[in-house]
């Protein structure tokens, strides 16, 4: 589904990735874990084509087997949720318009973009799926952070994508909203659906995630089955502090040793 090979990428003047390679197959559920500044968000921006790698011989980025992906086709295959996207919406955008905007790859409502009755019906149904029914006309500014994040999840689902990509989906949420978001994510983990989550908290890695990639300073320092990678020694080294890891019912927790 996603193939990075020998990729170099910059954010402004900063080289974030250099000689970076990573393959993610169709249907895989992957968590990319690392401290702030590790390169997680840059990695996702390359996938969503918000950012492009340096062009050079022996380097390629392929999505769904092709290195030339039509953006409209990409939006129908990948659903994306991030805090940056959340901050792009104006305070006066109505909740239903947030969801509908996903059909057009837009931010908010625009007069020249007129949804069909079928699209409106689907958007209203998705509001119910993310437990936001009854909020169709509520302004974005009047919603809690957790409610805003659920709206973006509904927006990401309008095209019934083959993969969900979530950049720190529980970031900034209180405990109740965080648990609610993680519960929703678990419900979308069908066998044929891929999911990529970036985070710096292991308690956001839902049980359905079966592969974990540890990222630090733009380099992969570990990649493999969750039970093998979420190791006290590996995470202590990643975060430069002594940590202990425990697991219960597929959920992982950590604390200072």
Task: Produce a short descriptive summary.
The protein is α/β, with parallel strands linked by helices and 257 residues long. The protein has nine helices and eleven strands.
What would your notes on this structure say?
This is Molybdenum ABC transporter ATP-binding protein. Keywords: ATP-binding, Nucleotide-binding, Transport. There is one protein chain. By secondary structure, the chain is α/β, with parallel strands linked by helices. It has helices at residues 40-47, 71-77, 83-88, 95-100, 117-129, 145-156, 175-187, 226-229, 232-239; strands spanning 2-11, 14-24, 29-33, 60-63, 78-82, 163-167, 194-199, 211-216, 219-225, 243-248, 251-256. The strands form 3 sheets. Strands 5-6-7-3-8-9 form a 6-stranded mixed beta sheet, sandwiched between helices. Strand 8 and strand 9 (219-225) form a beta hairpin. It starts with a strand and ends with a strand. The mean pLDDT is 91.
The biggest beta sheet reads:
6 strands, mixed
Question: Which strand order do you get reading across the main beta sheet?
Answer: 5-6-7-3-8-9
**Would you report the number of β strands?**
11
Query: Which second-level CATH architecture applies?
Result: 3-Layer(aba) Sandwich
Tell me the number of structural domains. 1
End-to-end Cα distance? 38 Å
CATH class: Alpha Beta
Could you say which overall geometry the principal axes of the C-alpha atoms support? globular
- Helical fraction: 25-40%
Strand residue content? 25-35%
CATH-assigned homologous superfamily: P-loop containing nucleotide triphosphate hydrolases
CATH topology: Rossmann fold
Continuous helix count: 9
Rg calc: 18 Å
- Low-confidence segments, given as residue ranges, are none
Structural class estimated from helices and strands: alpha/beta
